[in-house]
């Protein structure tokens, strides 16, 4: 039997590890129960973006939360490096959203103006015509009618980030149990009893559910509705390219090792099976944006499942039925990692200085 731990984090992805690190640095004894390598993990299939453009255009609290996260990333990367010696390859020199449809370009510009109204000074963006882009990025495809640019957007190596969060947690005393699929969680007179699929029982005083898609099953056991669904995304990975790509976009990025990642599909699906149709569409879009990519070889591809809520915004919820239980879920785990490891841990602890997160309560879905 695992020694009793006051706080259990169910889920060892980027979200769970960031929360675990935050609680450990606040002095808590933390145990992370991680699932199987065969689980459908968003952490192993994400695009690695630290992205602000369009986040919360219609929801000011999310716009502000994402803005704070983007601003905190440089310091967060330095902190992780000091704890672990791992460089997560943060590059935050601005990013583009490219458009081949004039109406979509105009609509997204309106969303950014909404976002700017919510954020005020400190947030800036540009709307660039085809002529502006051709001057700034010689070689841009003629099919691109325009683009938006935000100087706070960037990216990291998500696999290095995952390793760094784990090592940082270990440095702060977090204990990890791997291949620890959870079958059920139930409240006791004091604390909670977690039953693993192998029959082992673990007793804890608090539970933070960061299990991604698994929260849909476990959440109701702790009094949560957990309205979570899977959204499929597909990616192409190319050979390493000697010449550096002169831009970062939400669909095309060059990773620090030199290869290109091409992605951006969205499909309502319950599995991570790749589709040729979507892969062809990704390749065509990439060549439309940057025709020089036409001769680059694709080495591999994969599909992964995002964790989505009904409105796309995070859920941060305390259980009203079982005090000491928390639900944390979002689809922007990389972008929000600096806040999950600091401000969200304050909120879990009910620190007087903690941010007000009522706007992310799951009860908003019942009200709407």
TrEMBL record:
Keywords tagged on the record: Oxidoreductase, Plasmid
Gene Ontology molecular function, alphabetical: oxidoreductase activity
Annotated Gene Ontology cellular component terms: cytoplasm
InterPro entries cross-referenced by the UniProt entry: FAD-dep_OxRdtase, FAD/NAD-bd_sf
Pfam families xref list: DAO (PF01266)
Residue span(s) of domain FAD dependent oxidoreductase: 8-347
Matching PANTHER family: SARCOSINE DEHYDROGENASE-RELATED
Name of the protein this chain belongs to: FAD-binding oxidoreductase
